[in-house]
Amino acid sequence: MNKISITSTVILFAGIGVIILLVTLKMIHVSEIFLSLIMTITYAILVFFAGAVDEYLKRLLYSETGEKYDRMKRIFEKAMNKWNDADLNEKSKIVIELAKDAMRENGD
User: Fold this and answer.
1) Domain ranges of the chain
2) Are 38 and 22 in contact (CB under 8 A)?
3) Are 76 and 98 in contact (CB under 8 A)?
4) CA-CA distance, 20 to 28, in Å (whole number)?
5) CA 81 to CA 102: how far, in whole Å?
6) 37: number of CA atoms within 13 Å, CB side?
7) CA 65 – CA 108 distance, rounded (Å)
8) 62-93: per-residue pLDDT in tens?
9) How many helices (H) and strands (E) does the chain have?
């Protein structure tokens, strides 16, 4: 599971927990005003938390993507340095290694 699906699952279970709490409070005949207050506060907290987590995960995703691109850039720079001094057989090996690295990167 990736971080986004784990966070979504946590938020889902938090929401289900709140619904169970509210149903329980309604069953024990808590005042409607108190129940509305709890619902409003809980909703506000969940919306804030979901927004904060969403923004955090977007930044984390951009960071991970940037690291992947930086790694591939270093691999291709190293290959280009070897390319200039390589003969045809060595160039074939370089292309094969680049393809393997690209496949590994896309397999993640």
Assistant:
1) 3-107
2) yes
3) yes
4) 13
5) 18
6) 5
7) 11
8) 777 777 888 888 888 888 888 888 888 888 88
9) 3, 0
